[in-house]
Batch of 2 targets.
Target 1
Amino acid sequence: MRTLEVVEPGPAALVEDLGRPGYAHLGVPPSGALDVPALRLANRLVGNDDGCAGIESLLGGLVLRARSSCTVAVTGPPVRVTVDGRPAGSHLPIHLRPEQVLEIAAPQTGLRCYLAVSGGIAADAELGSRSRDVLSGIGPQPLKAGDVLPLGEPQGIPTGEDELAARRPPAELVVPVLLGPRHDWFAEPAQQLAVAWTVTPESNRVGLRLDGTPLRRSKDGELPSEGLVTGAIQVPPSGLPVVFLADHPTTGGYPVIGVVAPRSLPALAQARPGTTVRFRPQA
Amino acid sequence: MRWLPYGPDAVLVECDSLGEMSAVRATVTAARLPDVVEVVPGARTVLVVGRPGTSALQQARKAVEAADLEHPPGADPREVELPVTYDGEDLRLVAETAGISVEEVVQLHTGAEYTVAFTGFAPGFAYLTGLPEPLRQSRLDTPRTRVPAGSVGLAGEFTGVYPRSSPGGWRLLGHTETVLFDPRAERPALLAPGDRVRFRSVR
């Protein structure tokens, strides 16, 4: 079997595909790559189906050794990628011969790079997906030095560079929000949301935690547990909102004031601590 | 019943009772709408998530409005019996709060039939309704930092089993050896919404 060896995982390297939607009624989060377009692009560049599992690398530092001939591609924020120490480029297919070593440096902007490999990573699937869910502990273990990753059968021909260079994330994110379902639990919810929020270092794959002027409730009391979606802005008693990402709990008891536009999720997943987020609420 | 908007691809159906919630959940699930991605029951709500760009949410609403919610589709509920050793740390506290003996707590808990209303908190954690009135008690004032897997507890109107060890504030009655969640099993969660559950004392 073709394999790929992990030499160094960097701060965090997780196997992710498009997740396991459809099991929320059993308490299982959707999970999957946070920056879905980046994983799809990486897969396309190496000739894979969109749903193949790749590696989500947090802040780079990922070093891999090819143990078989394979094609890889790295996407996400612009990042320095080397093969045996020589620059190889990101956002394009790279062919690796056995024993060649690929290294992804730390990106200067953004958080998460995606590596796809021809055939995809063939770790064991759980509930139909190879995604690591950090909330539930479902899916392949976080990668560590010495891991040998099995690869699937190559499916197609690498398609070459089909998108211009990576986007650089803007210094300030403007995020459209649809109010509801519980905006009526807040005084002037639109006005309160439409200010500058700052991404905090407590953010992770479960949610983006924001700092700013705490949101004031107009209604006290508790909400019986209700379902949550990716992108839901939940407001705990502190008044500081959390934007739920792919590994979010399936139900919760704090009011959800609104939901971010799904097209904003990839940028939110790349937002570093300190990034300013401005919500643009619409009814 | 209220239909609350929940982003572009979901709707939250707010119901007047747990019974109505269960009927809505059963109706939408039984309709097997191909573009409905998730049907997530809560304590008083049903979250319906549709595939983006489809009419899944309208179809779900139509199915609910056309249904007789007094007689929801049964979908052949599974019956599960869980053997429990009643040796929980809070058994005495539960008995004192209810003003009955420990033996009576066990009799009440094993005598009732429960229904899985919804899940959450952790994969396979099912909130079971049908708890006899004297056992409807508040959470612990101070949650435990670690509750072992298999612990059987109660809180408010619910009883349930911790599928794996985690922090938790439910009053603990005992424990079961039964595996509640295995992500590699064909049926990963032993308990799904609508299932009927009984507890049997094994001591």
Note: The CA atoms of residues 116 and 192 of chain B lie 6 Å apart.
Target 2
Amino acid sequence: MTSTATPRVTAYAALAALFLLSALAIRRPELAVLALPFALPLSAGLHLARPPEVLVWLTLERERALEQDELAVELVVASERPVERLELLLVLPDGLEVASGASTVSVRLGWDDERAIGLRLRCARWGNYQVGEIRLRARDRLGLVAWEQQLDRKTLLRVYPLPETLRRIVPPVATQPSSGNEVARQKGEGIEFTDLRDFAPGDRVRSINWRASARRSGLGRELVVNERSPERNADVILFLDTFADARAGGRSTLELAVRATSTLASHYLERRDRVGLVSFGGILRWLTPGMGSTQRYRIVDALLESEIVFNYAWKDVSIIPARTLPAQALVLAVTPLLDDRAVEALVDLRARGYDLAIVEVSPVPFAVPGEDEVDALAHRLWLLRRRELRSRYERLGVAVASWSDDAPLDAVLEGVRAFRRHARLGRG
Amino acid sequence: MLLAASAGAWLALAADAELLVRANAAAGLTAALLLAAGLALRVALALPIAVTLLGTEYVALLGFEGEALDARAPVVAAALLAVTELGYWSLELRGPVAAEAGTSLRRLGLLAALLCGVLALGVVLLALVGAVSAGGPAVDLLGAVAAVSAVALLALAAHRTS
């Protein structure tokens, strides 16, 4: 605990000395009386001042929360000796804000006293937060000495991105052998009706479509059987571009991209698909495809650590481990399309035959055109260049949907689905 | 600030000579304005300077008057302490952290006790000086004690700060 004398100490000492020396100089004892109110509290206060021994505990209501959630925080302070004035400041990281109560409070502790201070925090933004940096400042009764201390009672708080409403996802073209919710294009054992064909030796009797067979009985044909498609799962790789982002007013394209990626991961995993993650940027992070709620937490935890790390080294898809990108996987890229390395990497993925779709987190709302003519022209050229980039992808058979905060993600994905119904999605 | 202005006005009106009245009134006004500016701009240094100005008024008053012991000294001392304490309190009240409920009452009680103590001790001190017969070696001794005490206080304060 660091102790410091308040400005009052210097002032009182100076006044006491001044009046006492004046008393000596002009030989008037009355001036010594004037020094008395400053000298006496000063000497008594400094002599009696003792550093407080304060114990502090911090409790978070829970360690996981969703964006915009509120959670209770309790600070408990205790001291065996009285503390006349104890100021506590709970330092909140950016992204957390006080919903009710105050992060700075002042309390008085008596003999063997304990106080609980409650406040509610609002999680304004997703992320991993260390909550628990506490700064204490105590003062003695006369306000002559202040003691300061910084305590570390850090607790990890994970704030998950708020999911977007999503009713349908982008269906993959190819499925995997394991069972899932996606109706495969291949025919086989399943419950989803696909077609009718003539009965062939070896067909099960239960697969005969008796109504259709009865209608065909006069045409010289015999029995017809139902053909079905199996329900399979798919491999989905979520490709998050973390090379660059656009920011304005505390919002950024990365923030939206993480929210979209988290939503997509949850929905694909609910369909029993295998979902992997590639965070492609200044730092490459990846998660090999997996299933289930464990994978969901892995992905979201990895997303919480997403950040823009500036790096000028050229990177392409060859640095991504091969097992992270299984063959016939649907690669769903969430990107602002601001960095050439990400743009080229996606073209490269498509050239390698991956089923690719792009959700473009639009940086346009973050880039306000300048007021003068040249700035406005530059902005128009930039918009044209972006449009040309989207056309380039579409010529390659890649659906690109532009998403910004003011539109539902579901509507944007409908555009991707519509494009993919007609586009040539086969390999290369 | 009101207290400082009142103290300044009182010390000005207590003087007999017209020149002293004017000088003390000017010093009192300056002290009050300085205090107001210090509180408005949150400059703590203005407080001791304002108190020094008020003290100077009293020194001038003593210089122009006779050699007899002035019985108003404890009242002036209490007034100066009250001005200083209330000034620092005002500065603290304008800080970002609101004090807990009941703190003001406790502090007011402490200030009242301090003022009573100062008045009582001042009277005792004056009585002692009067008894020893003012002037001569007694005042010299008091002055020497004052000087040593001042140096000791400054040393103690410096020790606490480091």
Note: The radius of gyration of chain A is 34 Å.
